[in-house]
Specification:
Number of strands: 22
Shape: globular
Number of domains: 2
Structural class: alpha/beta
Strand content: 25-35%
CATH topology of the largest domain: TIM Barrel
Length: 383
């Protein structure tokens, strides 16, 4: 594959402005030039793509995805690279494979898969690290997590939960005994911490934010509902501008009216549009696995036998369209919730932006949000 690529005539969504009729030069996996288009002489054999009519956005980042295409990360972490290779077609260029509550050692297995690296010749959406969703969750808000494997926060179980070892995000219930100590430990180890599957009160949530929690996992879900006398974790997250909120914009996990509320309160700078997708992503309706459970999947939702939601079959491309439709937002307004906001949460300055020196990850879409071209590390994935 060539180590350089030229894009011409696209509309580029930069951090500062929307730049029409743009010229972008990708070289060595980075954005080497980004400027208004002008006639110029390029090498005769230069790889050039005419992207007229398309909006060039930074590559999309999904911080919560459990698997896809028939594969479940928790049951088989070795499938991370295979899912990543196929995920690129959906518009996502990087992601956090999410390991849910499971037998001890599963997170370590997943970290080892990432350390071992991809198979020879692999290309696709790149895993940025692991998201450990559990096992330190409140049993009363367990959702589709197996209660047999839930635990109270224990520092001895987090020894390899470090940024250096590849853990990027951990979801826990901060109100549990030892929860705040776990938050502080993980932050010192370079891991972002999200509150989720939690019964935290408003006051407990405020204390958790002060201790280092910077996000909430799938806002509104697996936490008490909004109440005017007992606002809880959801209201605390909505009220704190600096706290990010993962949001599953499928119209099933959250009613469109609640999506509108979150969008008005936090906007794209406070929301990370996640999929929480499970093994049925990209597959026909049927029975699939999630963390040891059988999940029944139809065209729109994934549920356990008792009706509990168990992940989704959502793509980030569909989440983009849903926010545009239900919240009345323009495409350009929504893009940060797929790009710069998750990148900021994870502390990744080279991702989530179209700027000189940034990573050459781009998702190009039509004006109505259809994914037309995906570029990862300067290489075309979908055209």
């Amino acid at each position: 594959m060539p180590d350089e690529l030229y894009l011409q005539h696209c509309t580029a969504l930069t951090p500062f402005e929307t730049l029409p009729d743009c010229f972008i030069y990708l070289h060595g996996g980075k954005i080497a030039r980004l400027e208004p288009y002008r006639e110029q002489t390029l090498p005769l054999d230069a790889p050039i793509i005419d992207a007229a009519g398309l909006l060039a956005t930074p590559g999309w980042i999904d911080i919560q995805i459990n698997g896809g295409f028939g594969m479940d990360f928790t049951e088989n972490p070795e499938t991370i690279w295979e899912v990543g290779a196929r995920l690129a077609r959906t518009g996502t260029t990087s992601f956090l494979p999410t390991i849910i509550t499971s037998p001890q050692g599963t997170v370590s297995r997943a970290l080892e898969v990432l350390r071992a690296g991809p198979p020879h010749g692999w290309k696709g959406a790149r895993p940025l690290g692991i998201h450990a969703e559990g096992p330190f969750l409140n049993p009363q808000r367990k959702g589709a997590h197996n209660p047999a494997h839930l635990k109270l926060p224990d520092p001895s179980l987090m020894q390899d939960w470090t940024f250096r070892d590849g853990l990027r995000l951990a979801t826990l219930a901060p109100e549990l005994p030892g929860g705040l100590e776990a938050v502080r430990l993980l932050r010192t180890q370079g891991v972002a911490v999200s509150a989720g599957h939690s019964l935290a009160t408003y006051e407990e949530a405020e204390t958790a934010f002060a201790a280092g929690v910077t996000c909430v996992t799938h806002l509104y879900n697996a936490m008490p509902p909004l109440h005017h006398r007992d606002p809880g974790l959801a209201a605390a997250a909505l009220a704190r501008a600096e706290v990010k909120a993962g949001l599953i914009a499928d119209g099933i996990h959250c009613h469109p009216a609640m999506l509108q509320l979150a969008w008005k309160m936090k906007g794209p700078g406070g929301i990370c549009l996640v999929t929480d997708a499970m093994a049925a992503l990209g597959m026909p309706p049927g029975s699939y696995r999630l963390g040891g459970y059988d999940v029944t999947v139809d065209e729109t939702s994934a549920r356990l036998a008792d009706g509990t939601l168990a992940g989704s079959v959502l793509t980030q491309a569909q989440a983009l369209k849903n926010i545009m439709r239900w919240c009345g937002a323009r495409l350009e307004e929504v893009i940060p919730a797929l790009t710069s906001t998750p990148a900021a949460l994870l502390g990744l300055p080279g991702k989530g932006v179209l700027a000189l020196g940034a990573d050459a990850d781009l998702t190009l879409v039509s004006p109505d949000g259809e994914v037309k071209l995906v570029i990862i590390d300067g290489k075309v994935m979908k055209k």
